Each structure stands twice: as structure tokens, then as C-alpha cells.
Write the C-alpha cells for this entry.
Amino acid sequence: MAMVSSTATSSSEEGQATEGLDRPEPRSKEEVEDVISYPDGGRQAWMTVFGAALAQYATFGWIGGVQIFLILTFGIATGRAFDQGYFRQLMLSGSILHSVSWTDDSSRPILAHLLPALAITSHYFKRKQPLATGIVTAGTALGKYQSSLGFHNGVRVAAAITSGLLVIANLMMSTRLPPSTKRKTIPLADFARDPPYVLVLLGGMLIISGFSFPVFFLQLYSSVHGLSDNFSTYILSIVNACSVAGRIVPSALAPKLGIVNMVIFFTFCMAILEYSLLLVSNKGGFIAFAVVYGFFSGAGVALTPAMLAMLARDVDEVGARIGVSFALSGVL
């Protein structure tokens, strides 16, 4: 009888073990810590980074004021959708929308769907998060660089290559962490009670607003000083080319020097440079300004979203925190 009882007990335990395989059990603290650990590198991590950079390159080459407003403002929705596990759906729908939009010159792409490409680095990186974000944002500067081809030729070339690049980008990127199980609404009240986040939020709004002034008016300002239209077109290409280095090099140094310290430094330098533009009046001066401002502004733009991501209390908030910042910046 004891043997039968022991066998029955063993069978019962085996049955429970088998049921456990079919039914998800609550994760232990150790398992949760293992899930949210950050490899800070590795093949898939860097593939995702470069895929996200490709997506930024393919989609942010041609944008105007209204589209910047739409892209940033709708980030409040797409950022939270990213947290809820809809990264793949957002990327695919945004890529299709972008590719289809080239068939109509009057309809430039509305690309709020693709902002999660900026947040995906939070699944893989912690200490190297600024560097990963800097590489991704460098794609936007390279995308703008293609505008040196001229508007009509640039549109034709962009239409020919961006769809293929988006296919490659979607194949390279992948999520690593499970979707958020928290409430689906954005915890704005919690964010408002987080003083560091509020200060960075306000500062980020001012950085983006200040950064946009030379980008939009540098061409006109050079024309006012008698420089040729051809030169005025290429001056922005110089800004964007130097911005690539500015987005990557300072981001690589941020873990050692402190990301907040670097944002303050580069933002202060951007302000001085913008006032110094009043003293520029010849071709050499405009080229020098474009080189230096491109580097310093690139650092300010790249480090701000990385700082927002690092202020998140957990990875489930990264998309929402960046989205709220972008939305407010778009309105401003």
C-alpha cells in the first residue's frame, strides 16, 4: 500500500509539473532581474541599433514644420504603444505608410509610427544607452544629408531606396523584453511628481526649439548676405554631416563624463553659437559656423532622449516618457 501511495504521489507531482509547463507561472524575483538585465552589446543588440538608424535615415530626410509637429505630437500615443508591446506593428505600419506616400508629392510621410525605433535601444542597453541612441539619431542627420541632391532629384532617389532600407531595418530590429503589464494609460500624474523628469522635460523642449532656429533660417540668412543659392543649399548639408559626429562621439563619452553634465555643456555652447551667427557675414564664416554648430547641436539632440530614457523608473516607461517629451516639444 505504501508503494501504491508513493506511486500515486509521484504521479500527482509529475502531473503538476506537466501542468506547470502549459500554464505560465508568476516569475520569481531572480527571473525578473534576469529578464531586465541589459547585455549592453552583442550581435542582436547592435543589429537592432543599426536597423533603427536605417529606419531613421529612410524616413526623416524630408520633413517640414507641420510634419515635425505631427511626428512629435503623436509620439505620446506611439510611445505608450511601444511600451505595451506593439513595436513590430508600429514599425510595419509606419514603413508601409512611408513607402506608399511617395506616390503622391502633395502627401509627405507622417511618421509618428517610427518613433519607437528610438526607444528600442532601451531593451538592450543601460550603460551604453547614450551611445546607442546617438547612433540611431545619427540616421536622421544622414537622411537630411541626401537633400543636397535638390528637392525633385532627392525625392526621386529617396523613393527608389527608402522602401528597401525599411525592409532591411525591420528585419534587423527585434524586441527583447516582454510587453508592459501595467495600466495602458500614461501615468502623467506620476511623471509630474518626478522633479528630475519635469526639469529634463522642460529643458528638452527648449533645446529642440532652439536647435530648430538655425536649421530653418540658416539658408535664408546666408542668402540675405549675398551668398549664392547653390551655396545656401549645401550649407545645411555641412551642418547635418557634422551633426553625425556630434551625435556619436559625445554619446560615447557620456557614461564616463556624465550625461547631464554633457547636455548642459553642449546646450550652453549651442546658445553661444546661435548668438555668434549675428557676426557672420561671409562664406568662410558660414562654413565655420555650420561645422561647429552641426557638431554641438548634434550632441544636444542625441543626448536629450537618452537622458529621458535613463530617468525612467523601469523599462516599461521609456516609450511613454520620451513620447510625452516629444509631444510637448511638438506643440512648442
Remarks:
- Confidence is low (pLDDT under 50) at residues 1-35, 105-109.
- The chain has 15 helices and no strands.
